[in-house]
Structure formats: structure tokens, C-alpha cells
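Let's practice the habit of predicting before peeking. Look at the sequence and jot down your guess about where helices and strands might fall. Then scroll down.
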Amino acid sequence: MELSYPPEAEAFRGTVRSWLEDNLPEGWFRPDFVQRTEERAEWLRSWNRKLVDGGWLCATWPKEYGGRGLTTMEAVVLAEEFNRAGAPMRGDFFGDTLVGPTILQWGTDALKNEFIPKIMRGEVAWCQGFSEPDSGSDLASLRCTATLDGDEWVVNGQKIWTTQGFQADYAFLLCRTDPDAPRHKAISYLLCPMRQPGVEVRRIKQIDGGAEFCEVFFTDARCPRENVVGAVNGGWKVAMTTLGFERGTSATTGYRRFAKELDEIIAAATANGQSHDPLTRQRLARAWSHVQIMRINGLRSLTGVLKGKSLSEEQRRGLSALSALNKMFWSEYHQEVMELAIDVMGPAGQILTGSEREEMVPGYGRRIAPADYPASALQSSFFFSRSETIWGGTAQIQRNIVGERVLGLPRDA
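Done guessing? Here is the structure:
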């Protein structure tokens, strides 16, 4: 594991940091800075333009597609500096980080020419159409179908937990396209228009008042025949590529939101005297050690990526397991530490103590709490943590991956 970055990476860090300081709104770095909800949409549009003009949007993409072609170390530094500043790093996470790189790897030249420039300019919004009501962790059991009708696919079925589906222009959608083939060899990866007859989006209101998740119903919706990424019935392999991008983007930044949140919990314990309780101090120390383990595991992952082909086969297996281990570790830690947060808050944790000006989840960005459900930042984070052992691969699935692929245990019957 490497603990220091090379000089050229640190020089690049200075470039990124200076640009952020010059381009973020005045007062952004003050603790009391609050961006009003009504201002945010316009600011995000202007920020996307700045990212494009500065060459930071999709900066890791090849230069021939408008990116900067950053090295792995430069990409890590870029992510760290945007995270440190609390600045949005991308116009559309689903477009820039998930489907865009997937199209670059698997798409035809026609798909690249059609969608890559629009993603680069922030002109198209995306959502991910993978999970279904009965097909989440066992994604290959999905039942949404796409049947070829001339030059179009006809899509029927339902997707759920579709983040930002209510504002998406396109979904990167997994559909069953061969009813007779084995389930992993019967799935295609489609780029399906969302704003059309036959697509119904219903927002799902969550316990903290937010409604970013949606359920989406497709009834004879249409998708161009050529909008298949990869081979027809070869979508499983393409989807695994997308999930790899999703899980591999935060190796050295993921722990930072937990560190920021722990600072909030320690401040609350100090303010109300809970920090004098020896058991509370012990639980805080345990939480701090968990955050440091996340930081170190991030550096281990980065080192493994940088060494690449020089790794032994055993080291490669260990590196592939680290992703599953990390997901299991941080999601279970977060539920534990948020129970600590509620305990620290005491009776005040049982009533809504926030305001509509308060950031909802420390470390997730400047999300404004809804006026009709003014949960505090820590309360919202507690609610949010309950879902984290489920989405992105359940804790049970992660244990199966480690047991079967690393320890060589027999598959679960």
C-alpha cells in the first residue's frame, strides 16, 4: 500500500484546487453558507457550463471524445479535491460515471456519436433501469421484456428504485429479449427514451421526506433498434461493466463523508455532555477506527489498481474481494454509528429538530431538507442508513461473493 502521492499528482492537485477557489460562489467555503433551493437549479446549470469550459466534466474520458485523458492518479486527485470542496463533480452522475463510460467501452460508433457529446455538454439526463420489485439482488431474474417490432423494441414491465427517474430523458435499461435462453444470456442493455407515451413514472416518498426514488412502468414503450449497447442478449456482461464503474469511483473519497458525519456526532456529544460518558467515548473511538480502516482500504484499492499486471493471482483475488468487503463494512458500520448518533441526541432525537435550511445528509452534498418534514441532518442520515445494507448489493450477497470467490466455499444451494 502506498501512503504518498507522486509529485506530479500533487502539482495537479494545486491546479484543481485553484480552479475551484476561483469558480465556486463567493462564501462557498464558509461554514454558514446555504444555497437556497430556488437558486440551486439555475446555479447547477451554470456550474455544468463552467465544468465543460474548464475541461473537468468527464475529464477521465479519452481526448478524442472531449475528455482530458487523465491518468488514474490524476483522476483520484480530481475526485479528492472536488470532494474536499463539497463541489458537484459532474453534471449527471448516471451519464458521466455510469452509462457514458459503458457506451465508450461497448457502444457502436453511431451510439458514441449520438450520446457522448450530449453527455459531455450536460444536455441529457439519465436514470438506471435495473432493479425490479422481485429482481434486486438476483438481477438476472428480471422480467421486463423488449420484443423487436421492425426497427423498434417494444418494452413492457416495471422497474423500481429508479433514482431521478422523474427527470430523466433516457434510461439505460435491462430487458429480457429472448424468453427461451438461459437467464444470463437473454438480457439486452437498451438506451430507452423516457419522455414518451407508455412510460409512467411514480415518485416514492421516503421516511425522511425525500422522493428521489421512483417506480417506472413501461407499457408498449418504444426504443430504437440500434440503441442496444453491446450484443443483443449480451447485456449481462455490459451491465457488470456499469456496476464496476459505480463501485470503483470512490476508493479514496468514500470515507470522507463518514469522517465529516462523525465530526457532527462528536460535536453533538460535546455540546450536550454525552462525551463525558465512558461508554459513549468508547463507541466514538470505535467509530473513528472504522473510518480510518475505510481510508486505508481505499489506499489499498488504489495501490492495487496502479500496480495492475504486476500483481500475483492471489493478490488479484484479494483485490476483487476488497470491493465486496468494503461495501459490507461501510454499510454495516453506518447503521451502527447512526444508532450511536440517535443515542447521543437523547430525547431530542425523537422529534424533528431540523430546518428547511439544513443540509440533509452530511457528506452527501448540499441537499436541502423539505419544509414539511424538517428532520435534522443526523436524523436524515439515520433514516438513510437503513437502506445501505440493501442497495448496491445486499450485505448477504457480499458475504456470498467473498465466501465463494475468495475462500472457495461451495455455492449456496
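How did you do? The CA atoms of residues 302 and 396 lie 25 Å apart.
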